[in-house]
Write a structure and sequence with these properties.
- This protein is α/β, with parallel strands linked by helices.
- It has two domains: 143 residues, 3-Layer(aba) Sandwich (Rossmann fold), CATH 3.40.50; 83 residues, 2-Layer Sandwich (SIR2/SIRT2 'Small Domain').
- It has ten helices and nine strands.
- Helix 6 runs parallel beside helix 10 and helix 8 packs parallel to helix 9.
- 38% of the residues are buried.
- The site of nicotinamide-adenine-dinucleotide has 26 residues, from helix 1.
């Protein structure tokens, strides 16, 4: 087997071909909204209804789209690879799960969940939420928020992620610009641990020089091709 422990980091680029705009797409969704207003705790305290409306619309969009070949290829890798495969995603969509990935950490939270700031309960949510919606757990009104990590907040599962990065021998970064930390720093940790680091992206990321190998192109093409090669190598060992 060429590698025993694989860690894969995915970003918005892997879901772009499913129809979910990335942050930096020209004319994309995010260029129409002020990030300070919809993706920070301060923005939420200033205008909670505007922030709820933004995430309600994102949820509605997400329910209309489907995983693409790149999501399916990573689920296949998890199923068929003889070693450990851990998927860490910055995406808040559920396209990895829908494609079949199971060993998956959502470091920036999940769009299809809400959290109550009164009881700290986390609940599934596929519809619309407002400041008038009572918490499904404790019943308190006006304390629900999207279960996503905003700028300035601590990502989820960091301890588990750092542990896996420190032990991995292959690190893949897929569809991520390398500009949002701490995820942009994962390659450095994996590299220090001795892992072979591979970037699969449409174009070189901001941390591209830290990778040993690069495959540039749309995720729906480069990811299935890379997975196929990895599985073939594992079978021949
Ligand atoms: P980003 O928007 O900063 O970068 C996306 C990267 O993907 C870019 O480097 C771009 O070149 C590449 N890309 C675009 N289309 C691609 C394609 N078809 N195939 C391969 N690569 C492609 O996104 P990021 O690095 O994930 O970081 C920013 C933040 O964006 C994260 O915190 C994430 O939570 C958030 N975000 C998530 C979603 C989602 O859940 N789907 C969507 C938008 C933003």
């Amino acid at each position: 087997m060429p590698y025993e422990r694989i860690v894969i980091l995915t970003g918005a680029g892997i879901s772009a071909e499913s129809g979910i705009p990335t942050f930096r797409d020209k004319g994309g969704l995010w260029s129409k909204y002020d990030l300070e207003e919809v993706a920070t705790p301060e923005g939420f305290s200033r205008q909670p209804d505007l922030v709820h409306e933004f995430y309600n619309a994102r949820r509605k969009d997400l329910l209309r789209v489907k995983p693409n070949a790149a999501h399916y290829a990573l689920a296949r890798l998890e199923r068929e690879y003889p070693g450990e495969v851990l998927l860490v995603t910055q995406n808040v969509d559920d396209l990895h799960e829908r494609a079949g990935s199971r060993r998956l950490l959502h470091m920036h939270g999940e769009l299809l969940k809400i959290r109550c700031e009164a009881c700290q309960g986390v609940f599934p949510e596929r519809g619309a939420v407002s400041t008038k919606t009572p918490c499904p757990g404790c019943g308190v009104v006006g304390r629900l928020r999207p279960h996503v990590v905003w700028f300035g907040e601590m990502p989820f599962h960091l301890e588990e992620i750092y542990q896996a990065l420190g032990r991995c021998d292959l690190f893949l970064a897929i569809g991520t610009s390398g500009t949002v930390y701490p995820a942009a720093g994962f390659v450095e940790i994996a590299r220090r641990a001795g892992a072979w680091c591979v970037e699969l992206n449409l174009e070189p990321s901001a941390v591209t020089e830290l990778f040993h190998e690069h495959h540039f192109g749309p995720a729906s093409e480069v990811v299935p091709a890379y997975v196929e090669r990895l599985l073939k190598k594992a079978r021949s060992c």
